[in-house]
Amino acid sequence: AQSVTQPDIHITVSEGASLELRCNYSYGATPYLFWYVQSPGQGLQLLLKYFSGDTLVQGIKGFEAEFKRSQSSFNLRKPSVHWSDAAEYFCAVGAPRGSQGNLIFGKGTKLSVKP
Amino acid sequence: EAQVTQNPRYLITVTGKKLTVTCSQNMNHEYMSWYRQDPGLGLRQIYYSMNVEVTDKGDVPEGYKVSRKEKRNFPLILESPSPNQTSLYFCASSPREKVETQYFGPGTRLLVL
Hints:
The complex is a heterodimer.
Chain A: E1 3-5, E2 10-14, E3 19-21, E4 24-26, E5 32-38, E6 44-50, E7 56-58, E8 64-68, E9 73-78, E10 87-94, E11 103-105, E12 109-114
Parallel strand pairs in A: 2-12
Antiparallel strand pairs in A: 1-4, 3-9, 5-6, 5-10, 7-8, 8-9, 10-11, 10-12
Chain B: E1 4-7, E2 10-13, E3 19-25, E4 31-38, E5 42-51, E6 54-57, E7 65-66, E8 76-78, E9 87-94, E10 103-104, E11 108-112
Parallel strand pairs in B: 2-11
Antiparallel strand pairs in B: 1-3, 3-8, 4-5, 4-9, 5-6, 7-8, 9-10, 9-11
């Protein structure tokens, strides 16, 4: 069965520190992978996505993620966190085109940023 | 501005009182979907629609209905809401050939007493 695991429910980092949010997936084939961010009271915003090709993908707001097939992982990173990055982050896996388009989401990682 | 809109944004109701949450997109997308978000569970798909008059169940369809009479609208209907349907609901849309990249609405927070 398809699934996405985000092992960390809540992470706190200091402003200016580096960040890595973990995501592991279980999927029968090479999936499409996504990271979304949800600021308090807001909807979901797509940070970045991986379909194929270069395994290091760049997204908006200075985020990047690396796809590692051998580890079934798609971890999100940012070299220097800003206070405005405090939000909840969701990793998701999607089926190839033509399918029902169901995105399987992880349970989310809440990021707090200390001044 | 390209967007997905949902109404209402906030709703408090009582058990058994039928309600409808509307979703509308102005991007001419064929694909539309409803998700619910619950703490510790992430987002789960309720229903989706690949085109007008074509709808299908997602992972958690029980207690919900949908219709797709027009391309731009995809209302979510709760015929007899129950407290376990208290949740945050998101509508999403995408072109049919790019269903992996979905645009999300702002969310509707529903409380069923």
